[in-house]
Amino acid sequence: MWLKEMRERTFKPHNSMTVAEADVPNERLDEYIGEDGYYSMVFDFSYTDIDVPETGEWFKDSQWTWTDMRTNIFTNQLVTQDKGWGALYLENHDQPRSINKYIPEEWINDYSKKMLATLFMLLRGTPFIYQGQELGMTNIEMASLEDFDDVATHSQYKRALEYGLAPEQALKAVNKRSRNNSRTPMQWNTQKNARFSTSDNVWLKVNPNYPELNAEAQLTNQQSVFNYYHQLIKLRKNSVYKDVLIYGQFLPVKDKNEHILLYERQLEDKIVLVILNVTATEQEYYVDEQYQQVLINNYEDVLLDQSRKLRLRPFESIVLANYGGQL
What's one GO MF term for it (predicted)? Predict the structure, then answer.
């Protein structure tokens, strides 16, 4: 097979790190990753395409739930760690912005953006951060189909009309899922075209929220989404928890509350617990006494009482460890 030959004659002699964009079924994953796999890792599409029906007609509203999301993430994590190494992503050039996909519009804020970052960055595997994701860039709303330059978007719009949607419904559908959402100019600062270009005409419109949402503003704001990503990267690379967060096993944590997503990373007797409220309502979780150290939290404080009951505010994420200090 040519993939095996490519690995043996091209990648292997140079000890290359390779990543494939290949939609590989779990039962064939060991052909693609691991000691004898064609690549070092492959991207997982199971949760990034959770909003796409099997027919590929993404103009249709997919009724996915966070229970589905949990199942897809946990299944892939468990299968992948048994066979090799994974490539993690929430956004790329073919996806809309993740915050708009996973969070209701009225709850898109820095808390929910940081919650998604926590979920993503602490899974087992290599995280790939797409341009603007580290700022929490959002979808753009186009006024007409002519504003899109993506052939797939035009095709989906046409199929939506044939399916029976009204023009305004079809436009709303492609605004929601078009990959043009992640291809708008990078938002550097408040200057013209977010300082991406001085031209009067850029290939895609700049998101009009750039005066408030831009790199320059976030660099100096210690509470920004950008700096939160920095904290997560520091945890993975330069902390006493790095070995657990990089090499530790992924372990799902079951809880009767379906509104909380929980998982552990464990290496020998060291455990990191990730707690995520994936809803817009307050939730409760009783924290085991072994967890005494707060690693990171997307709110300014931790609401934990003497009975170890943790109050989780809307889209709150908190990461705890059973070593390194006292809660």
Answer: alpha-amylase activity
